[in-house]
Amino acid sequence: MAISNKARKVLWGRSANMCAICKRELVTNSTPKDDESIVGEECHIISGQPNGPRYDPTFPRKNLDLYQNLILLCRTDHKMVDDQSDTYTVNILQQMKSNHENWVKDKLKPSTESSPIRIRRIKENTPAFLHRFTTGKEVLNLVGSCYVYYMDHDEPHTQEEADLIGGFLKILRDWGDISPDLDPNDHVRTGFDLTQTLKELEEAGFHVFGAREVQMIEGGKDAPSEWPVAFIRVIRKTNPEIISLSNKDERRIHYQQTDQQDT
Questions:
Q1: Alpha helices, DSSP H only, in the chain?
Q2: pLDDT higher for 118 or 253?
Q3: Contact indicator for 151, 165 with CB cutoff of 8 Å
Q4: Which candidate, 242, 224, 221, places its Cα nearest to that of 233?
Q5: Does 262 map to a domain?
Q6: What is the pLDDT of residue 261?
Q7: Which of 68, 86, 108 is the last residue of a domain?
Q8: Is residue 263 a part of any domain in this protein?
Q9: Is the pLDDT of residue 200 over 70?
């Protein structure tokens, strides 16, 4: 049984032609010499092959190619979720798909705002320091309690350092988006995996620091509401910004209000 035209149209329509993970547009523009290129792939959440990712022998074969068992991804993320199927479980992919499609719905809603929306920073809510993280649970609790993430890092000196830092920040972005929807087992396992990554970063000569700031979103027809933001920095152990506190086993760095990158 192949994917039907109806299932394909529903999947692409509800995903708005974007990867459910990285939000990349999945049809590239034509060039003077070539037609458009389709870089999106209709991926099975549960594989129909016994040696395939997330294979479930109890799953009805007649449902394998239905819309409910499909997620739209770019080729890079498709390979990632299939290679790392122990991390990207059935429940995780279903949640990612649901979150993405709900995000698309929100983006396409007609605007009914009566005044411009702005985000305002409040001085008393601004942290004085970013504190060092030593466990994945701490990192997951931070990103899971925030709506947006500002991430920064020291310049990598090797390709290995670039891959390690980049991979860590990408994991935070992906898991932060679905953290509130994780069940307890996934939450514990994800925290454990992040702890291992923190250890790898430390062995490579880096520390991870972070803090939470509550900003205010104002405007439109709704009353002002809180807009929690996570600030995360990956810096070398030798960075002079790091402050060691003499009275406790803790390290921190001064909070920076400039050169922030929204990821």
A1: 5-15, 75-83, 90-108, 136-144, 159-178, 184-203
A2: 118
A3: no
A4: 242
A5: no
A6: 39
A7: 108
A8: no
A9: yes
Residue 259 included in any domain: no
User: Is residue 15 situated within a structural domain?
Assistant: yes
Given a cut of 90, whether residue 1 has pLDDT beyond it is no
**pLDDT 10s digits, 117-162:** 888 888 888 888 889 999 999 998 898 888 888 999 999 999 999 9
Residues with Cβ within 8 Å of 139's Cβ and at least 6 positions away in sequence, in order, are: 133, 172, 191, 194, 198, 208, 210, 232
Q: Do the strands 242-244 and 206-218 form a parallel or antiparallel pair, or are they unpaired?
A: unpaired
| pTM of structure | 0.60
Q: How many domains in the chain?
A: 2
* C-alpha distances in Å from residue 215, one per residue of 115, 199, 254: 19, 31, 19
- Between β-strands 129-132 and 206-218, what pairing exists: parallel, antiparallel or unpaired? antiparallel
Cα–Cα distance for residue pair 6/9, rounded to 1 Å: 5
Query: Could you tell me if 10 and 98 lie in one domain?
Result: yes
Domain that holds residue 167: 118-254
